[in-house]
Write a structure and sequence with these properties.
- The chain is built from 26 helices and 29 strands.
- The chain is of the alpha/beta class and 708 residues long.
- The protein has 4 domains: 1-132, Rossmann fold (3-Layer(aba) Sandwich); 293-468, Rossmann fold; 515-591, Dna Ligase, domain 1 (2-Layer Sandwich), CATH 3.30.1490; 597-707, D-amino Acid Aminotransferase, Chain A, domain 1.
- The chain has a 7-stranded mixed beta sheet with strand order 3-4-2-1-5-6-7, with helices on both faces. Strands 9-8-11-10-12-13-14 form a 7-stranded mixed beta sheet, sandwiched between helices.
- The longest helix has 23 residues, at 446-468.
């Protein structure tokens, strides 16, 4: 099925409202790049003060065009934007690219204009790109609305919320010899959202790698959903700013976007298979690899060099980024040893012992053996290859060039990637140019070589993981009793559930809780303790009291009749200091939880991503170390498994120092059911189960807090 954005990226006609010939103006640059970029469709230039522009007819208004208009680019002051959008949709435009800045990113008045033009466009099915954007580029349509010099065509596509970042990226790509299939300046992104661009680029046969620069995220849940599908086919490499307080301020002032909780952004990207980077260098290192190299099947790398020092540094860098450096089987080592100086290690890392400096062909021989070894997924060459000519003798240069051609052949034949770290990487050496021209990543940094290779293996493994994962279904309906209970709390004009109500709602979702009894008198309290027959906990129940412990509303280990009467009186006395007697509904009596490990499970609605489920080890781990993990809802089965395992306190659940392993499946079951509850009840703002005590068998929810 054709993507709705196809008519925007491949328009049959384009109108430029605000077209100009004044050198240096934003409108002039973009009009010129459109005309001179080879676009074959019809171009209509709109400027009421001119009869001709660029030796073409100029129209007073877009309404004066007696033809169809697919795409409109608007480069006029903010006060004229609304009328321009009205006229554009009247002419049947499918897309409106608004270059104009000074709207939503500047304050409330600008946001009002954005809301108005979005409403106008939506009524007629037109899509807005921007505003506050730099334009767009489509290689297959020869359409350049960016106002920059000719752009090399290639396999990369960029979506960015910053015009100057796009200018930098296009220049940077040109230096790297990389080209683009699409470039989208999203700007304030009030119309077309990031996930819609992802969907389009996933279908675009010319796009091999998707790069994105994000300042704020809108409809993050949809972004995760769509990116999860795209990442099964194509890598998405994201530079998301706003991690620091200063970065968040800069992003907000630029696009009016909220930076949001960076931990949630990280988790969401992992769920979706998005590869997050933190600077442009990292982005283009990875883009270079994905553009020119086959994917590794896994993360097992062979390291080879003419010196032990470079090998040691490379091995440390490889493991730093999660790559494995396995010991090669003895049979394969025996095939490698004839090419090394006698006595040099062939186990991995592999040290030529200087033989390659005089005869670089040794590198090919070793690489060929490694390509045939199933235990190896990729090859990482480190040292000063390309510089042998400078160090040894001029005739070695020809041998290096032969080696480069042979390495390129091996990559093509065996479909395993090779990355090369060399101190000569930035010098104009022909052997290294051969590697680069054949897609092999060459870098002066051992760290960056390992980083890029690790991201390739991460994407490869993510693809398989995403294809195997099973998503929690979103289409369930809340039980009628759950809806009734939520309406009851709403009707009482309360946001906080009483603990009795929270327990009731959890039970509607088959989340098991220990038995509990609500008592209103001393005698009822005594009876409850006797019926439970084991040490009990007493907790106040009042809509006025949310944090019960803070006001002396909780007492533990109540066993006898006298203790029950005393505890009842003390809790009621404490409660009456902060709440009217009429608002004290009683005391909840429940058995003390069995011994186990304290955990916390919760849900919060994030402004960018919607409902997010959270898990952590309780007690000091959550209070001091903030040792928690989270996932955007709905999670997959693999998401739930990973979020439990990734916290630092996970070993406490598997059994340490003689402790028995805890029932991790019981925790996963609660996480899944809480996620389902959040999906089916959008009124729920927060869920806090703290602590959840997990035992060798089962788990006990000691306290539950729900806010709507």
């Amino acid at each position: 099925m054709e993507n709705v954005l196809n008519r925007i990226f491949h328009p049959k006609s384009i109108a430029v409202i605000g077209a100009s010939e004044v050198p240096g103006k934003a409108a002039e640059r973009r009009t010129r790049s459109l005309i001179e970029g080879g676009y074959k469709g019809k171009i209509f230039l709109i400027n009421p003060k001119r009869e001709k522009l660029f030796n073409r007819k100029a129209y007073p208004s877009i309404l004066d065009i007696n033809d169809e208009v697919d795409l409109v680019m608007v480069v006029i002051p903010p006060k004229f934007i609304s009328q321009a959008v009205k006229d554009s949709v009247k002419m049947g435009a499918k897309g409106i690219v608004i270059i104009t800045a000074g709207l939503g990113e500047t304050g409330e008045e600008g946001k009002k204009i954005e809301a108005e033009i979005l409403e106008i466009a939506n009524k007629k099915g037109a899509r807005i790109i921007g505003p506050n954007c730099s334009g767009m580029f489509s290689a297959s349509a020869n359409m350049n609305l960016l106002g920059v010099p000719p752009i090399k065509k290639g396999p990369l596509s960029i979506i960015a919320q910053s015009g100057n970042i796009i200018d930098s990226l296009t220049h940077y790509a040109n230096l790297r010899g990389l080209g683009f299939s699409n470039i989208i300046s999203a700007g304030n992104a009030i119309g077309v959202k990031f996930h819609e661009y992802f969907e389009y680029l996933n279908q675009d046969k010319d796009t091999k790698v998707i790069l994105t620069y994000m300042e704020g995220i809108k409809e993050g849940d949809k972004l995760v959903e769509v990116a999860r599908e795209v990442s099964k086919n194509k890598p998405i490499v994201a530079l998301k700013v706003g991690r620091s307080k200063a970065g968040a301020r800069a992003a907000a002032s630029h696009t009016g976007s909220l930076a949001g909780d960076d931990a949630i952004v990280d988790a969401a990207f992992r769920q979706a298979g998005i590869l997050r980077v933190f600077n442009v260098d990292e982005m283009f290192d990875i883009a270079t690899c994905f553009s020119g190299l086959p994917l590794p099947k896994g993360k097992r790398v062979a390291i080879l060099s003419e010196g032990g020092g470079d090998n040691s540094v490379a091995a440390d860098n490889a493991e730093k980024y999660g790559l494995d450096v396995p010991i090669i089987p003895e049979s394969t080592q025996e095939k490698i040893k004839p090419y090394l100086l006698k006595g040099m290690p062939a186990s991995n890392p592999i040290d030529y012992g200087g033989t390659a400096e005089e005869n670089p062909d040794m590198i090919n021989k070793v690489a060929n053996v490694l390509m045939e070894e199933d235990l190896i997924d990729s090859i990482y060459i480190t040292g000063f290859f390309g510089g042998f000519k400078e160090i040894i003798a001029s005739h070695v240069g020809e041998l290096e060039e032969k080696t480069s051609n042979e390495l390129a052949r091996l990559v093509h034949e065996y479909k395993k990637p090779i990355v090369v770290h060399t101190s000569f990487a930035n010098e104009p050496i022909h052997s290294l140019e051969i590697l680069k021209e054949n897609g092999i990543f060459v870098t002066p940094s051992s760290d960056r070589a390992a980083f890029a290779l690790s991201y390739m293996s991460k994407f490869s493994l993510n693809k398989d993981k995403l294809k195997k994962s099973s998503l929690l279904k979103k289409d369930g309906n809340a039980p009628d009793k759950a809806k009734e209970l939520i309406n009851k709390v709403k009707g009482a004009k309360r946001a906080n559930f009483l603990e009795t109500e929270a327990r009731e709602l959890l039970e509607f979702y088959n989340i098991k809780l220990p038995k509990a009894v609500l008592v209103r008198t001393q005698d009822e309290a005594v009876k409850a303790v006797q019926e439970i027959g084991e040490p009990t906990a007493f907790k106040i129940v009042s809509p006025e009291i949310v944090h019960k412990s803070d006001v002396g509303g909780v007492l533990l280990n109540i066993k006898s009749e006298n203790e029950a009467r005393d505890a009842f009186d003390l809790i009621i006395e404490n409660a009456q200091k902060v709440s009217p007697a009429s608002r004290i509904l009683g005391i909840l009596v429940s058995p003390m939880a069995r011994k186990g490990q304290e955990c916390i499970i919760g849900m919060v609605r994030n402004p960018q991503f919607g409902p997010v489920v959270m898990f952590g080890i309780g007690g000091i781990f959550v209070e001091v170390f903030k040792d928690v993990s989270c996932r955007v809802i709905p999670p997959t089965d693999i998401d739930v498994d990973e979020m439990v395992k990734e916290i630092k306190g996970y070993p406490l659940l598997t059994g340490i120092r003689g402790e028995a392993a805890k029932d991790i499946d019981a925790l996963k079951d609660i996480i899944i059911k809480i996620s389902k509850m959040a999906i089916e009840n959008p009124e729920i703002k927060e869920i806090d189960l703290n602590p959840v005590i997990v035992h060798e068998k089962g788990a006990s929810i000691v306290d539950a807090r729900i806010i709507i």
